[in-house]
Structures are given as structure tokens and as C-alpha cells.
């Protein structure tokens, strides 16, 4: 089994302390030679400027291939394409194109009257520019808006057909969840790469709250395992062991690329990569 190719997701910093954290995160993970890194876009476009600054600063200073996340929320089509064009002008070649979530307090995503009505429209418009490689989101556990068990796969096929070239999944807890989804995508004629989204668990209670918001079921055995690890103050060790095992199983099933949700906390991601045999030395050999 060869070492994986990796990519890392960061979020843009909102203050000076968070800027240092992001800098430390990128510095620690860049030597693992990620195929790309990505920077999220705050709900409702709240980090429009910060995302742009983080994307361009990381690209300039670390020489990494940076993908900018972009959503349809709270913006006209013209405004959204203006943001995309500013990325192209700054030399950014990859976009993670998303519909985005409903704003706080609302239960459903409602498009801006002059905005893109869904992710497929956004992807098609970005593809039309011919300026970007487009990644999209994918959901191994059903997305809360999915109308049937197959709906996410059918919709993903539409996103790929609209011009996306790869999909990054929401995090999940057990390898079977991803493998079943991958099989279903193949049955629906999706041949684009589907990168599993990997979340090293730093704070189990926080992850459970986030999972509930995303509609990701939490296995009972993990709850028990983290409760026991917390009693012994060994959560980090459990987290690294579980995440490494998850990645290992995926790699043994033919997965070649892993997309890590770093949450701007680099240590667990780095340790898992090292446990999978990907060190800065190995990464150097791979790119040479
Ligand atoms: P879509 O795939 O378009 O929709 C999600 C599901 O809803 C579909 O699979 C389908 O089942 C159903 N659906 C939606 N529209 C239709 C339709 N017209 N017809 C039929 N079915 C439909 N959010 C942010 O705000 N900022 C970020 O930076 C960000 N980054 C993310 C990165 C990744 C890798 C992922 C997986 C998610 C990210 N999110 C982010 C969260 C994302 O915005 C939410 O999950 C959102 O609810 C869905 O966005 P999407 O583009 O994946 O949706």
C-alpha cells in the first residue's frame, strides 16, 4: 500500500491570534506536500475578504496550490462571479463550489433573488469561465436536504456533469459509510475522483454537536470509547488511533487521496499522516 496523497482544509482567521494559528498550521502541514489546500468561506459570505486574503497569502508564501471555497448564499450572480474573477486574477486556479447553508435561524436555504438558485447553477457558471478546476461537496451520510437515500448521488452526478472535476466528502465516522457511497456513485456513472473528508477528532463533544447539525450519525461505540479516553486523559491517542485506522482501511480499499479537515489545528492531522507513512522526507521523495 503506498502512502496517500493528501489535501488540507483551513478556515480564514478572524483576528491576530487566529492568524498566527493558521500560519503555524500551514507551516506544519506544508512539508507533507499536499496536492492542494483549501480555505473555507464563512456562512453567508461573512468571510469574503478574509477568505480571499488567506487564499492569496498562503499561495504566495508557501507556494501551495490553494482552492478557494465559494457559496451561493446572500449574493447576486454578478457578485459571486466577481469574487471568482478576482481569484482568477490573483492566480487561483481551483474553487470548491458550494450552495451553502441556510442563514442562522432559517431552516431552509433560500436563494438570493438575483443569485444562483443551487450549486449546479454556480458550478455551470464557473465552468463557463474556463478558469478553474472545480471541486464540489458530497455526502456519504445523507445530507439533511436529501429527499431519498439516492438523492445525494443523483445530485452529485448533476454537479459533475455541470463541470466539476472532483468531489470532497463531508466527514464520516466509519469506512463502510464512504465505501457504500463510492459504490453507489460508480453505479450512477460517476467516474470523477471522490476524496473522503477526514476529521481528526480533537474535541469529541464539539464534533458530536457539529455532526448533529450536518445529519451525520454518531456510532454509539465511539461515544463510549471517547468517554473512557476522557476519563484517562488519553483522547488524543484514541483520536490518532481511530483516524489512522479509518484512513488505513480506506487506503486498503483503493483510496489514494485523503482530504483532511484540519480546523486550523495541525497536530493530529500531522500525526495521522506520519502514522500512514507520510512524513516530510517521504513527501520530498514523492515530488522529486
Ligand atoms: P448540494 O450538493 O447542492 O446540496 C446538498 C443536497 O441537497 C444534495 O445532495 C441534494 O440531495 C439536495 N439538493 C440541493 N439542491 C437540490 C436541488 N435543486 N434539487 C434536488 N436536490 C437538491 N459551507 C459554507 O458555508 N462554507 C464553506 O466553505 C463550506 N465548505 C464545505 C466543504 C465541503 C467539502 C463540504 C462537504 C461542505 C462545505 N460546506 C461549506 C457546507 C455546505 O455549504 C452545506 O453542506 C450545504 O448545505 C450544502 O452545500 P453543497 O453545495 O454541498 O449542496
Overview of this protein structure:
The chain has one domain: Alpha-Beta Barrel (TIM Barrel). The protein has 288 residues and is an alpha/beta fold. The protein is globular. It contains eleven helices and eight strands. Flavin-adenine dinucleotide (FAD) is lined by residues 40-41, 43, 69, 71, 96, 98-101, 118-119, 137, 139, 143, 145-146, 151-152, 155, 168, 170, 197.
Could you tell me the strand content as a percent range?
5-15%
- Compute the CA-based radius of gyration: 18 Å
Largest sheet strand order: 1-2-3-4-5-6-7-8
| Shape summary | globular
Helix percent reads 40-55%
The fold-level CATH name is TIM Barrel
CATH architecture designation = Alpha-Beta Barrel
Task: Give the CA-CA distance, first to last residue.
Answer: 20 Å
The residue ranges in which pLDDT falls below 50 over 5 or more consecutive positions are: none
Write down the domain tally: 1
Question: Structural class from helices and strands?
Answer: alpha/beta
Secondary-structure map:
Layout: E1 5-10, H1 16-29, E2 36-39, H2 48-62, E3 66-71, H3 77-89, E4 94-98, H4 119-129, E5 133-138, H5 151-161, E6 166-171, H6 175-187, E7 194-198, H7 204-214, H8 220-231, H9 235-252, E8 257-261, H10 266-275, H11 280-287
Parallel strand pairs: 1-2, 1-8, 2-3, 3-4, 4-5, 5-6, 6-7, 7-8
Helix pairs in contact: 1-10, 8-9, 9-10
Bound molecules: flavin-adenine dinucleotide.
The site of flavin-adenine dinucleotide (FAD) has 23 residues, from strand 3, strand 4, helix 5 and strand 6.
